Amino acid sequence: MGENFISYIFGLIAFIVGIVIFKKVAGCLLKTIVIAVVVAVLLIIYFMFIKG
């Protein structure tokens, strides 16, 4: 009984830590993608309207 309970608690903790790490990595990736899109749009505007 005690061994199964400890195993269940360990699995639950590992699951929660995995979710937290995934959210941090996904948030960072999302910010990076948004910044890349904004830079690309600004470059397109620069080359089409200002430099053209």
Q: In percent, how helical is the residue content? A: over 70%
Termini separation (Å)? 75 Å
Mind describing the biggest β-sheet?
none
Give the topology string: H per helix, E per strand: H
Mean pLDDT: 85
Strand content: under 5%
Q: Which parts are unreliable, with pLDDT below 50 for 5 consecutive residues or more? A: none
The structural class is mainly alpha
Radius of gyration: 22 Å
Number of continuous helical runs: 1
- How many beta-strand runs? 0
Shape designation: rod-shaped
Q: How would you describe what is shown here?
A:
It is a single chain. The chain has one helix at 2-50. With 52 residues, the chain is mainly alpha-helical. The longest helix is centred in the middle third of the chain and has 49 residues, at 2-50. The radius of gyration is 22 Å and the shape is rod-shaped. The model has no long low-confidence stretch (mean pLDDT 85).
Q: Top keywords for this entry?
A:
single chain; 52 residues; mainly alpha; 1 helix; rod-shaped
What's the topology here?
Elements lengths: L1 H49 L2
Give the gist of this structure.
This protein is mostly helical and 52 residues long. The chain has one helix spanning 2-50.
